[in-house]
Amino acid sequence: MPSVAAPARTPGGRPSGGLLPPRRSAVILRIDNLVKHYGQVRAVDGLSLEIGEGEVLGLVGESGSGKSTVGKCVLRLTDPTAGTIELAGRDITRLSRRAMRPLRRDMHMVFQDPFSSLNPRFTIEQIVGEPLLRHKVTDRRGVSERVPAMLEKVGLRPEMRSRFPHELSGGQRQRVGLARALILEPKLVVADEPVSALDVSVQASVLNLITDLQRDMGFSCLFITHDLSVVEFLADRIAVMYLGKIVESGPKAEIFAAPRHPYTQALLSAAPVADPVRQRERRRIVLGADVPSPVDPPPGCRFHTRCPLAYDACRTDEPPLTDARGNGHPAACHLITADRIPDAAAHR
Ligand code: SF4
């Protein structure tokens, strides 16, 4: 399966969008043919991707697409069934818990629910400073010196260090989660729906904060979300997942301007647009049927039970993820392989 490769980088270190001649940044995360089955459930079924240094990859899909399982496998919170995961060139797929321990300094998770991910009996200073002690970076005195600066960095007042999680709002708790994830300056952050449990009114401010922190600190990020509009301003590249597989990936601007896969076209047609004129012009694609069960995914193209463009071959043959135009924007659809341009909106 072709890999969703990290693109070339500009001299300033930001991604070029994969359209410039190859000048590869260091790859921080490489996933090759990852499979994770929970018994009969084929949560992830052969997924490959790369994230370059300082790059944000938005991994997008509906509930049940397997995107959170990818994040858990990357952090080795669950063991992959097959495939390989490399962090900064080191194969971590089958490392023991003990061997993983020092590497956990380089990779951190930001969870969806900031309340349940913070220990209610600990103060904010204990929560944010705990990774420093666990990895023996400093002692308690050092924690007291470093935590206030980290709190300020995430937009919290240093005095909040003595508070407990229940005394904070949802947005403040997520800022604490970010402070804890970033205090060791990890190479890779896996953010799993970090704003979806927050009020809409605070989502934008937390997203802006993540964007600023990422630019400032330069960490790579696997940003997992069901909502394409969330990654519009944050991600460098986007990979769209459906039933355990990537169906399309590419530079963010390309995905938003010219989505190729009918599933991506449908997701985009449902995403809110700030500009009312563009919103009116948008042709909404309503997908029929529910997402099939990952226990028994449909044969051929997994999307064929919902695709408005499906034809005979789609029901029997699985389309490969193909970069038909060689511009770092692969998609898995027979129409693209046949050099046609899918337009799901035209077949409503
Ligand atoms: Fe639709 Fe067929 Fe393309 Fe799958 S391969 S997305 S069913 S047209």
TrEMBL record:
UniProt-listed SMART domains: AAA (SM00382)
Alphabetical UniProt keywords: ATP-binding, Nucleotide-binding, Transport
SUPFAM superfamilies: P-loop containing nucleoside triphosphate hydrolases
GO MF term set: ATP binding; ATP hydrolysis activity
Pfam short name (any one): ABC_tran
Composition bias type Low complexity, residue spans: 9-21
Name of the featured protein: ATP-binding cassette domain-containing protein
UniProt organism field: Nonomuraea mesophila
